[in-house]
Task: inverse folding
């Protein structure tokens, strides 16, 4: 399965056009900070919590040796963030 393509598809779907009034959203770095991403509007997207979780899982699949991404996903899974 192409996890990177799936991740990009989700980011595109929820990018600048996603607006759900009243729905809880979480800020997500499109390119994670541990991979050089910055806190700039172009690198941020707001996702529903479940989709945010899925994106972090996909990032772990795309970058399996990145321990910072693994920790972020683990923290989300254990509600430590």
Result:
């Amino acid at each position: 399965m192409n996890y990177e393509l799936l991740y990009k598809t989700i980011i595109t779907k929820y990018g600048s056009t996603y607006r759900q009034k009243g729905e809880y959203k979480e800020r997500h770095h499109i390119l994670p900070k541990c991979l050089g991403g910055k806190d700039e509007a172009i690198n941020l997207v707001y996702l529903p919590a479940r989709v945010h979780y899925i994106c972090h899982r996909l990032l772990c699949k795309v970058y399996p040796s990145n321990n910072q991404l693994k920790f972020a996903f683990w923290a989300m899974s254990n509600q430590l963030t």
Notes: The chain has three helices and two strands. The longest strand covers residues 26-29. The chain has a mean pLDDT of 91.
